[in-house]
Amino acid sequence: MPQMAPISWLLLFFFFTFSFLLFCSINYYSYMPSSPSSNELKNLNLNSMNWKW
C-alpha cells in the first residue's frame, strides 16, 4: 500500500487551512446586518429593570 510523503501532508494541511480561512473570512464579510429604522426605535419598550434581591 503506497504511503504519502510528508511534504504532501504538509501541502494538504496548508491547502485546507487556507481554504478554511478563506471560507470563514468570506462568510464574515458577506453578512450585512440591517440597521433598525427610526420607526422601530420609537416602538421600543423602555422598561427599567429594577432587580429586587
From TrEMBL:
Molecular function (Gene Ontology), one example: proton transmembrane transporter activity
Transmembrane region(s): 7-29
One GO process term, biological-process aspect: proton motive force-driven ATP synthesis
One cellular-component annotation, GO: mitochondrial membrane
Main location: mitochondrion
Keywords, sorted A to Z: CF(0), Hydrogen ion transport, Ion transport, Membrane, Mitochondrion, Transmembrane, Transmembrane helix, Transport
Pfam families membership: ATP-synt_8
Location(s), subcellular: Mitochondrion membrane
Membrane topology of the entry: Single-pass membrane protein
Functional note: Mitochondrial membrane ATP synthase (F(1)F(0) ATP synthase or Complex V) produces ATP from ADP in the presence of a proton gradient across the membrane which is generated by electron transport complexes of the respiratory chain. F-type ATPases consist of two structural domains, F(1) - containing the extramembraneous catalytic core and F(0) - containing the membrane proton channel, linked together by a central stalk and a peripheral stalk. During catalysis, ATP synthesis in the catalytic domain of F(1) is coupled via a rotary mechanism of the central stalk subunits to proton translocation.
Quaternary organization: F-type ATPases have 2 components, CF(1) - the catalytic core - and CF(0) - the membrane proton channel.
Family to which this protein belongs: Belongs to the ATPase protein 8 family.
UniProt name for this protein: ATP synthase complex subunit 8
Species of origin: Drosophila neonasuta
Record lineage: Eukaryota, Metazoa, Ecdysozoa, Arthropoda, Hexapoda
